[in-house]
Description:
Trna Endonuclease, Chain: A, domain 1; elongated; alpha/beta; two-stranded parallel ribbon
Amino acid sequence: MNWLKNWIFGENMPAKQAMRQSKEDPQARYLRDTLAFAKQQHQGLRHKQNEHERWEQHYGSLHVKELTKLTGTEFEDYLAELFKSHGYQVEITPITGDYGADSILLKDKQRIAVQAKRWVGSVGVGAVQEALSGMAYYRCDRAWVVTTGNYTTNAVELAKQSNVSLLGHNELGKLILQMQNQTLNRHG
Length: 188
């Protein structure tokens, strides 16, 4: 059975063992062929999964880039519809004097304060602080910052320490794709 271990882990089979194969019983040959087929299928599926993940990230990123063309208010309205499609009830806060939360999400008895940043570059600690402020003011259980961009190292550190969830362009892209798939499934 050492030849089987060598073969599975990618080492070349010695010539003597190759000669023994021709004399092996049909059950052992069947087992070897079955393992070869399973290994080939596994590699093919892994490749397809990696391709799909790359496509999703690229496709979702393309949609996120389109969002950077919106005004801040349009982006907040878009997020409200996006979150509604994911089963959240959405309360929009006032445009000015929002105390750090652009909207409040409600789902499963949880209140989430959302700070939205339609941004091309990196969002800093100020957005995390605003989300925390909105969470306290609106008596929410959690706080999120959602952006079309990404986050500075300091923003990530503050978010970790204060338990604020950061959704960057990758996460936003995935939410958009999920919403589109739900729409296709309902209408297609």
